[in-house]
Records
---
Amino acid sequence: MVTIDRIDAAILDIPTIRGHVLAMATMRQQSFVLVHVRFSDGSTGLGEGASIGGLSYGNESPESILSAVRDFIAPCLNGLPADNVNGAILRMEKAVKGNFIARAAVEMALWDGLARRRGLPLADLFGGAVRTSMPVAWTLASGVSSTDIEEAKELIAAARHNIFKLKIGTRNVRDDIAHVTAIRQALGDGIGIRVDVNQAWSMHDARWGTAGLEELGAELVEQPLSASDTAGMAELTASSRIAIMADEALNGPVDAQALACRRAADVFAVKVAQSGGLKRAREVCAIADAAGIGTYAGTMLESGVGTAASLHLFATVDKLQWGSELFAPLLFADEILAEPIRYSDFAVHVPDGPGIGVELDPDKLAHYRRDSRKSSLHALTN
Ligand code: MUC
Ligand code: MG
């Protein structure tokens, strides 16, 4: 029987191509935790966990993810049967509460290892892909309207993106609406405009904001209110023509069920990391589907490793009415994969298997790695 032999993890810090201005933080770099699992037959699996803006987005940081993986998850999984990913998930959920991103990173590496041993794309472990590519939005978040417009025009001309998510919530509502209007007018019809408020609005702001956004033809507002304000989200969903999307409020199937019961969103931003893993993200999609809520493949701004795993999972879901925002590898100043994920024709393409279908570039790994512990570095590159 093949067993889980060793789990290593390391933080990589990679600069972004420009400041990424979100309501709660401005990112100038992203920090990913890469997880490498070695199995007793010599096979390996790769996973990733990323948070956004340190602890300003949620309750996990790169450092907490690293510690959870190394100090708590690895010891409870070592020696378990490698092919029983469901068993490992239960063991992790029993031993480690919360820490969804950390658990998801390890689970990803277990699925990747299993798929590689079987010589299959990871999507096949979830019943097979029903799509080989998906629409991919880009986030405009330079903080300056004219820079965002220039950036969007270049991306449209390159046939890379025709859906844009605008990060708002740092200004007052009136100025935010002026910012979205300027971009909408400059880009014209036929271009999808969505906004992400990252919880920055009060209910009063949201009433004005959603009305203004409806008027200018935006399609969707993501997490306008605090993640804890389910009643407010339900009220907005009932009263707005523009779609209301839950993001930070959605941490796995239990939240999905609660939001669906209260009809507190039109759309779920389903994130593998935030859901607690690929399997639980698939369950979130099933709840959305059963409740008539649309799905959107979200990101925690992962590198190509986490992005590839998400692509495999979202390739298998029946419906993906709002496409994806699996663009993050393009937000970083450098590529850590040996072969980058392909973006063309306004879509992102699912990498071919086995496993997640991508490999790390060992030189990039060595370059961006935060610590210099050679033992882990060796394990991550072999
Ligand atoms: C978020 O809140 O959705 C996703 C895309 C992006 O630019 O930021 C993330 C976080
Ligand atoms: Mg969001």
---
Amino acid sequence: MAKEMKNERMEAIVSLAKRRGFIYQGSEVYGGLSGTWDYGPLGVTLKRKIMQLWWQHFVESRDDMYGVDAAILMNQKVWQASGHVDTFVDPLCEDTVNHRRFRTDHILKDNGVDPDGMTMEQMDAMIAEKGIKSPDGNPLSESRTFNMMFKTHVGATFDEKSVSYLRPETAQGIFTNFKNVVDNFYPDLPFGLAQQGKAFRNEISPRDFIFRSREFEQMEIEYFVHPDKWEEAFDELLAETHTFLESLGLSKEAIHELDVPEQDRAHYSKKTIDIEYDYPIGKEELMGIAYRTDFDLGNIQRVSGRSMEYTIKGTNEKFIPHVIEPSFGVERALMAVLSSAYREDEVNGEKRIYLALPEHLAPVRFAVSPLLKNKPELVEKAREVYTLLKKKYGNVMWDDNGNIGKRYRRQDEIGTPHCVVIDFDSLEDNSVTIRDRDTTEQRRVSISEL
Ligand code: ATP
């Protein structure tokens, strides 16, 4: 948390997220559990809307995508074959006095050294050369590797055979179902399998609010292609990624492509583009899109002994498909949405905070209020309008707490695009006041126009 708390804008967003019921620290009542976050009523709605939009964009609106929802717990062979047991590790160094542990690459970054492409030994040498100390001012130990998977046991026996892991990515649940979908649906190449769901990583230093969590959600696609045709599929999915990010309301100027250099890519990846976003904490990875060759299906075939080959219909051409993987983190998308929507301005000489969320993402689309909550005739009319809008739009909130000014302030912070107020004139002429969140302008419209 230390880094983000030095950043005023980030601090304001974290505070709003808590105050308005978007995101709370996990297990807060017991002092919290680092790297875990709970979603409140508005946060869960916003998160689901982002996930639904992705599903609609990448799965439902296409005829070359198939959805799956695999179990989080998987046979340990999955993680042996994928390389996660041996190589899903981070370099870790230790404060030699208080024994707190830190990611060596993060220590270097925080001290103005770019660790990308460095081996663990090179990072240690750099720490020694520059005399870099731990954040607590003590000498640091040499680095060791640390596996980021949460290990557990399945069943009542606690031996090597019962070991399993909470999945650190959703991708392997897709690869392990490749053959099932091919056998059931006979899809033509190229086609993709998509999955959304939880992933778990025992991050050494979770930080920057939900940006680096230990439990988070991913939205991943494995798009299977003929080995000769990976480039066009890569370009198409990259273009679709930009369209999707635009539909989240993120401005083009804040989105950057990083063509990851060979030494920083996973060894099996022939091309990776990270999409970075200008978060209040700086330019950081929002998602990545990687050409993973036939690495994953090849490993499954080798370890399971089952063929992962695909035969082109009506021919004898048989091969293991290659794959393009767009991998999104929901929390990183959500943090980008909140950061991009967060605004401060001045209304009638007073500071105002509002979330300029796109209307299709706003957790509450309309808030409906009676001007005065102690006038039964106003309340009754307002209830009528509320029921009407609720039926039509679903995400409509009844709000009669405090005076109108307070209600506007609250709805602005929630990001509600429209506030509808029922007053005495409404009883006469069936019209209401509708106030726009971004301009604060108020208009008179008839109820039927809503
Ligand atoms: P980083 O370099 O930031 O640790 P990564 O390159 O390890 O990320 P991937 O393994 O490519 O990330 O995971 C795919 C996506 O999952 C990332 O682009 C990000 O959106 C999301 N993600 C990964 N780790 C976390 C985390 N600890 N908390 C939240 N989201 C994460």
